[in-house]
Amino acid sequence: MSKQAVTVIGLGPMGQAMAAAFLKAGYAVTVWNRTANKADELVAQGAVRAATPAEALAAHELVVLSLTDYDAFYAVLGPATEALAGRVLVNLTSDTPEKARAAAKWAAGHGARHLTGGVQVPPPLIGKEGSQTFYSGPRDVFEAHRATLEVLTGADYRGTDPGLAQVYYQALMALFWSSMTGYLHAAALMRENGISAEEFRPHALKAADVSYFIGVMGEYLDADRHDGGEARMVMNAASADHVVHTLRDAGLDATVPVALAELFHRAVSAGHGEEGFTSLIKVLERPAG
Ligand SMILES: NC(=O)c1ccc[n+]([C@@H]2O[C@H](COP(=O)([O-])OP(=O)(O)OC[C@H]3O[C@@H](n4cnc5c(N)ncnc54)[C@H](OP(=O)(O)O)[C@@H]3O)[C@@H](O)[C@H]2O)c1
């Protein structure tokens, strides 16, 4: 059997980790990056450096893309459309679901098939147990290449809509960024009070485990019920103000807590003051009509 082969386009920290994982798994790997010297270490490990995107596309059927955004996707592939026919593009670039859908159509127009992916782990966890990527797009393409994709991370196929992987990915990033920034606001307050991040760690880890709340809230949200009266929105709004005042008293930035307090007060103003925390979704969702 001939050696399995893959092209990796985009060698930021993520693409480099992916190309290295394929090399380690014994794949023949062709790479291309706009800034050519980012391929040096991979070439030293056995990768082949393509001179142009067209040459990279021509090298192998399976092409993994890891770029900053979909503008970069068109910047790289736009001048190489004649080399797209028959290729499978596994686009692990983050961007909006709409852009993923448009890219799938664009690729099909040039004879290529497009799988969208959203990688849920940072580069050091590529090739490690427990890592995961959301995929969506044609199921047959996913199944045909699943084993190869699993060299990188576990593969969680979400459905045929090419936007779906990015819907899952961006939803989780919304959760991730607010949790991580909340942690840094908290760590800044602790530091200001002489408490190190190490000392704070066990308390932060406990508070970051919101699984109980997510477990309970799902039922309320799906039933569109907001009577979780033990944590009324008026109380939540007052509590959010206390966080803002505490940070400001300490001379710290309060950008994210200010935004949260503003949302909580909007929910109260909209008539949800006596309802539970899930009523906040009423000010977050798309207005009716
Ligand atoms: N890093 C993470 O922790 C992480 C975790 C999960 C998901 N992701 C996602 O994975 C993707 C790649 O991540 P990364 O950290 O490797 O990103 P990155 O540092 O932004 O690098 C991405 C690559 O995009 C290329 N690029 C950007 N604009 C370009 C353009 N106009 N033309 C040609 N090439 C262009 C860069 O080329 P140059 O080298 O020439 O600049 C680089 O190779 C992103 O979509 C990111 O959101 C990242």
Q: Could you characterize what this model shows?
A:
This protein has 289 residues and is of the alpha/beta class. It folds into 2 domains: 5-159, Rossmann fold, CATH 3.40.50.720; 168-284, N-(1-d-carboxylethyl)-l-norvaline Dehydrogenase, domain 2 (Orthogonal Bundle), CATH 1.10.1040. The chain has 12 helices and 8 strands. The protein has helices at residues 13-24, 40-44, 53-59, 70-77, 97-109, 139-149, 164-192, 197-208, 211-222, 233-249, 255-272, 281-284, and strands at 5-9, 28-32, 48-49, 62-65, 88-91, 113-119, 132-136, 154-159. It has an 8-stranded mixed beta sheet, with helices on both faces. Strand 2 (28-32), helix 2 and strand 3 form a beta-alpha-beta unit. Helix 7 (164-192) packs across helix 8 and helix 10 (233-249) packs antiparallel against helix 11 (255-272). The longest helix is centred in the middle third of the chain and has 29 residues, at 164-192. The termini are far apart. The relative contact order is 0.08. Bound molecules: NADP nicotinamide-adenine-dinucleotide phosphate. The site of NADP nicotinamide-adenine-dinucleotide phosphate (NAP) has 22 residues, from helix 1 and helix 4. Residues 10-15, 33-35, 38, 66-68, 72, 75-76, 92-94, 119, 122-123 line the site of NADP nicotinamide-adenine-dinucleotide phosphate (NAP).
Oligomer: single chain
> Which strand order does the major sheet show?
3-2-1-4-5-6-7-8
Main sheet: strands, sense, barrel: 8 strands, mixed
Helix fraction? 40-55%
Which small-molecule species are bound to the chains here? NADP nicotinamide-adenine-dinucleotide phosphate
User: Which percent range describes the beta-strand content?
Assistant: 5-15%
Determine the structural class based on helices, strands and strand pairing: alpha/beta
CATH level-two architecture of the largest domain: 3-Layer(aba) Sandwich
